[in-house]
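$ run holo --ligand "manganese (II) ion" --emit tokens
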Amino acid sequence: MNIHEYQGKQILKSFGVSVQEGLVADTVEQAVEAARKMKEDYNSDWVVVKAQIHAGGRGKGGGVKLAKNLDEVKEKAGAIIGMQLITPQTGPEGKKVNKVLIAQDVYYPGASETKEFYMSVLLDRAKGRNIIMYSTEGGMDIEEVAEKTPELIFKEEIDPKVGLQGFQARKIAFNLGLSGNAFKEMVKFVGALYKAYESTDSSMFEINPVLKTSDDKILAVDAKVNLDENGLFRHPDYAAMRDTTEEDPMEVEASASNLNYVKLDGNVGCMVNGAGLAMATMDIIKLAGGEPANFLDVGGTANAQTVKAAFNIILKDPNVKAILINIFGGIVRCDRVAQGVIDAYKELGNVPVPIICRLQGTNAVEAKKLIDESGLQVYSAIALKEAADLVSKVLA
Ligand code: GDP
Ligand code: MN
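-- output --
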């Protein structure tokens, strides 16, 4: 589960990671009020207005703006709140901004130069270990750094038996070219960051940039946090940070019906039980000349309710020209699934696209008979090849 930058920073702060401070605002008035409070606390007129959306690259898209006084806060927050922000990560349609973070300006001049670093903590699945990835080339596109100058990206592997060791944090600070107080601050920062990552059951923390200020503080200026959904039951306070307005509405509806749904761009909707069979079904659709419109796993119990909920979600996608139902009846009997399909179909009334229903397993023959005698616009099949041929036929 993704959360906003301001929420990620709240979590980081609670584990002792120093962050660029800020206050969140939903309206221009709140934004101005927040800037006033920031001035009281930090004695500076300058703040940064930062769009809060679940996507990075906001700076490039015009979603991060420096404001030097309250009038500018009003003007910039006014422009950003409600805008459709397009960044390299949002897709061409962009994302609507509902909130801004009014953050302290931390790029102030001082005794030494400011420096931007990159740092992330994530699970390296090949190694089965957490790693800290970091680079002197922060602030910009880390993907570009990885492609053009991979030697500038360092990785530190954490042994799960002993956790992050002091020498590893010092090595990171050293490789980032730090000395003196900034070195000490970085060692503390890395330790607290790793602790936060581990304790929250996260799958990724990405801080880009980590800033060395002109007075040698080390701060998280940005925070991209991905919490592992499987661990959320242990953290109800983090689960409450979910912002469904940032998610695909169809995926939100599907998860409410306990369906595993991922929207794709094709023309053939599919409804399958089991993730492996769902993947195979998507391959079959491609071989038949179609493109899958979604991934949808209805899970172990494919009854009339789940079938209906799945129909409803698939049919909301205007690109869908046909639906392929592919259910294997192992524990669930095919004739009951067939009855579920028929009931759901009748309840929905007019289903505007042809349906191919392939049921295999226990009582497959009875199921085919039920479908064939239903008088509905549903093509039945038992073999997968037959189903694929029917997909080609209805698309032609
Ligand atoms: P992203 O573009 O979505 O990754 O958002 P970031 O939070 O990383 O901010 C983008 C850029 O805005 C940073 O790389 C900085 O260059 C700039 N920025 C962020 N905070 C400040 C600040 O306090 N002062 C100034 N002058 N620039 C800032
Ligand atoms: Mn960033």
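-- notes --
The pocket of guanosine-5'-diphosphate (ligand 1) is lined by residues 20, 48, 50, 56-59, 64, 66, 103, 105-107, 139, 208-209, 221-222 (CB under 6 Å).
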